[in-house]
Amino acid sequence: MRITFLGAAGGVTGSMHLVEAAGKRLLLDCGLFQGRRDEAWERNAQQRTEADRVHAVLLSHAHIDHSGALPLLASQGFRGRIHMTTPTAPLTAVLLRDAAKIQARDTEHLRKHQHISREPLYTPEHAEAVQRQFQTADYGAWFEVAPGIRALFRNAGHILGSASVHLEVRENGHSPVRVTFTGDFGRRGTPILKDPEALDPAEVVITESTYGARVHSHGPEDAMTPCASLLEAVQWILRSGGKLLIPAFSVGRTQNLLWSLNEAMDAGQIPRMPVFVDSPLAVAATRIMEAHPQCFDEQALQRLRRSLALLQSREVRFTEGVEESKSINTFRGNAVILAGSGMCESGRVLHHLKRLLPFQENCVALSGYQAQHTLGRRLQEGRNPVQILGDEVRVEARVLSIRGFSAHADRDELLSALQPLQAQAGRTFVVHGEPEQADGLASSLKGRGFQGVFVPQEGESVEI
Ligand SMILES: [Zn+2]
Ligand SMILES: [Zn+2]
Known about the structure:
The protein is an alpha/beta fold.
């Protein structure tokens, strides 16, 4: 068996690992690189593997840094199946459609304002066409990937449909070799979704390390309740009279924030106020989530039993159309605005940032991981002014990071999920983390007796 780390190696985005075994070539994930626009475009435009020789893709979850290169792979000649869990299919479909739209908008913007002509990585038609290759499986059900190779998904508790991937390869005459890939691994006790399931023992382990060297300050029990820093941000705008803008991933984070805001208003912890969800993608993702109650935890099911909608309430206003979206601008008084994208790279959040950042009564609350070279990261680092849509914008609003909403396990949570695999694991690869985080997790794993722990670089290939 040979594994080549084609992305999310030495960094977080662009998740893609090539497994060559039993005469077949499989990809674990097929994601886009994110970050500086030009650099990301170039990295994504480069063909990372001979697409027509890939037999199948196993997709851990719908996030675009894991799924976003699928239409590209197909347009480069990939004809095989793309295996994923049942809820991941509709989520990936809407995310790919959205990614194609963003690319079309970006290339148009470049052509018009910078006279740079560039092809989008793929079109909405490509994003549509690749769905014919989707093949869904339920959690815990074995399926054949190729003769001699079978796989199953386990709930990873990261976003709806997210999975750790367990592969079993039988090459003639040899005892089976198993591979466990954590995908993005979630936390216990987060809202709505069931907790992550145990990982399956394997000879080869590939683990994410987004927070491989960090411990979330909030314990898992705190994640059950609306997190204190979110409520603090709301209290702050109540005093200042401004708006609270939360840039949020449309899939996962937005639903968790909605859940927490609704629960806090129901419990009287904060007064009732309008919550605008300004993202057609978030609206679609929320509907998909509501259609998969089999993935809900007890708390979410209880809410349904009380005849309350999972995420909708009188306060929550979904704005799908552009005109509805613009009506937020004229709204007077306190309000919370959730808008994509989570790292402030594109989407409607940019217009809200441009409008709200120059005024000190407003508050921008960043939630979750902000990748290097993104506007979100620059705001988090306190840069002032910042560039938004070609303009210099002063940052007078309060900028803070709200904690307790991470969809990624921290160091201790990863270590306790991985520990039961230590006895079998002959090789452990640490991916999906910035160097400090990946190295940190690697040394913790070595300290716990893991053998053959390695942090691969992008493009690095290992024979097993
Ligand atoms: Zn993810
Ligand atoms: Zn990821």
